[in-house]
Amino acid sequence: MKVNRPNASEAFGITPAVLPATSSTVSPAASTFPSFAGLDDDTAAQHARQLYGDGLPEGLLSSSQYKSYERMFGAPDIISEAELEREFEAVADESNDLTGTGVLREAEDGSLEEVEYTAEAEEEDADIDAALSHLEKEWKTMDEDEHIMYLDDVRYFKLEQYLRSNDKDEEADELLQCLFLHYEAKVEAEARKRAEVENENTEEEILIEEVIEEEMHDSEDTELAGEATQRTHPFTEENRFTTFPSTVTLPQSALVGPVSAIISGTSPVHLADAAKRIFGGDGLPYSTSNPSFAKSMPQKAIPLDPSLDRMSDIEADSYFAAVMPGTYASVMSALVESRKRLGSGWLESLLQKEGGPRILDAGSAGAGVVAFRSLLRAEWQRLSDNSDDEEASKGLAPADGRAGGAPVEAPTGKATVLASSDTMRKRASVLLDNTTFIPRLPDYIHASDPSAAQHGKFDVIIAPHTLWPLKEEYLRKQYVANLWSLLNADGGLLVLVEKGVPRGFEMIAGARKFLLDTRIASPGNEKVAEEVDEPGEGHVFGVTDKGKGMIIAPCTNHSGCPMYTKPGMSAGRKDYCHFEQRYTRPPYLQKLLRAKDKNHEDVQFSYLTIMRGRDLRDRDEQAIVQGDTATSRAFEGYEHMEPEEFVEDEFDPTAPAISESSAIRTSPHGLMLPRAVFSPLKRTGHVILDLCTPSGTLERWTVPRSFSKQAFRDARKSQWGDLWALGAKTRVAREGVTMSAKAKRKLAEQPPKRKRAQPIIYDVPVDGGSGKVQEGGIKPLVGGRLRRGKISGVRDKRDKTGSGRGRKKASAVD
């Protein structure tokens, strides 16, 4: 259907009815006056007043319109056609005589002279006509939305003219200011659009240039193409301490969603108040978080533990909301690092087990199980990926989903979770399927079947934040020994995690020392003295053989920890082994902390992963050697060694151990390299790395620019926790600082504590008759026990007969 649209002059109100005659060639007598027939009386009177002022041409208005004019403006002066014609002729003659506009200018003699200049009225009229014609063409090309926008602009300008005609200049200025802001925003939007288009064009040009460069690069000689390598050395890339991506994101369906549903029944305000009360106030310093101000606070363990037999609903919700996210991130980081050191064969063997791996979560109420299942799922997807196999898509999918079609779900295995309280157990059951919940850990050490402790049960045991709540060292040793007995004797993995503070490190270091001293055999240290409280017949010489085992991460040695030279608690410990993992906070934790500036957190933790029943140092295929030989070889660097391909799946636990004198392979295993235990010190021209070496020592290696361009570049990109394989130019020993210099000075300035003098107790005999003290009989009491204060239930017996056999009163004299 064709729509009749008005032209530009009609749309803008520029019609012959409202425009005065401007032509000087046609007389008003010969022309026709504007017609107001289609307008109402008041509108016609207003238009006539606006066009002709006080004098109206004769016959311009009708009788009704004339009455409206008189009512609104008073009686007008009627001008006849003859008067209009004479007036027009006079103006025309004057315009013909004058060719310009005359002005008076002062001459040199001081008199005034008239000067004429040519008026540009005709040029202005031509400009107006051109503008109207351009407007007419532009109006025809507009759509309906643009017509509306133009009409709004015209209404604004008409309103501005009306305001100024009524001496309302301030309102008119405000209106123009609003229009200016409107047009400025419009111009900025158009500029942004043009910039986006230009950027897209630029990106396309850059992409085209890159494609051209790649094509030119491919067309070059194969020798030149072979020299092109990636910037980061492969050994540096594969030995980095990081997850992928580097920021851990909590799984939405497995953790964030269920926990959100669990705590949805609790008021957020009440939950935040309870979390602050339980975990130390703002920032939750006694949870897994490590705010900066917590360094000046006393170090305490996480107050809530799944092993507690009583826990209220709001305490359980606080644990799930405040502790579980950081626990998941730290456990995931430890598992990923262990997977890198063990290779893909470890997880592949667990996936191939009937029923899947057996997992024990001893301290995180299921967060460790969720983390390990995420790792299993990623490994299963890697094994099921057949994108590189062209023939896989042509075949039918077998039962395991390895070829063609969508892969089946990864085996999640059988999980066992420690949850003593009913509130914790009900909430953890929402997170996990195929899971058994137990109120306490089984005791395999004192089990009736001695073979239970020898063989173990679980393939993976995850025990985060379980050592620190135990108050005594012997209790922690018993706990670690029990976990070791529960671990599968054929390659089970134990994961211990504590907070990344000095006390948490001491718990991990103490567990490491206990296992190395009593459970894990190393060359030259294969036997240990028997413990009298352990069940069994015992050995005739009172010693027993240690079992096979190996530390997987983070240590690359089996010597004493160089930062734990003084066992137990150490006041003011400055150097301690801990690591950091960034994770994205879930919404409920963000709300709990009232955080608005960032949605991520860096959780600091100390950890230890140990494998039972297998010693990777026995594998001659990889030639894993630790000690001084490995440290010296790592100092020389592996930069110019080609990576060697080797099979990680094949494992022979009966293979003989390799001595340190044996040749080391050119492709280094991660367990043969030193690890950065502090952030690298990046200086101008050199980088300083503080490393824990395979020799079990702390050393400071310096990598200058002159040593190697590749090593210097990778050292500047290295991070806290990375293994270093490219060597260094200089190395010096570094002693672990157990107490800062400031703390030592403060301790030295304090006066020595004086022992409180013990009171001397005297026996004062009293004469029963007179009640006087017998001075000669006063003597100090040497032995026995003195009762102090009033004792409930004992009546003060007096010597009423004077025989001296009553209860004697004693007084204390300092």
TrEMBL record:
It comes from the Eukaryota. Residues 384-410, 743-814 are annotated as: Disordered. The keyword Phosphoprotein does not apply. Residues 185-214 form a coiled coil. Residues 793-802 have a biased composition (Basic and acidic residues). Keywords: Coiled coil, Iron, Iron-sulfur, Metal-binding, Mitochondrion, Transit peptide. GO terms for molecular function: iron-sulfur cluster binding; metal ion binding; methyltransferase activity; structural constituent of ribosome. Residues 805-814 have a biased composition (Basic residues). GO terms for cellular component: mitochondrial small ribosomal subunit. One of its GO terms (biological process) is translation. It is found in: Mitochondrion. Mitochondrial ribosome (mitoribosome) assembly factor. Binds at the interface of the head and body domains of the mitochondrial small ribosomal subunit (mt-SSU), occluding the mRNA channel and preventing compaction of the head domain towards the body. Probable inactive methyltransferase: retains the characteristic folding and ability to bind S-adenosyl-L-methionine, but it probably lost its methyltransferase activity. This is Uncharacterized protein. It comes from Elsinoe batatas.
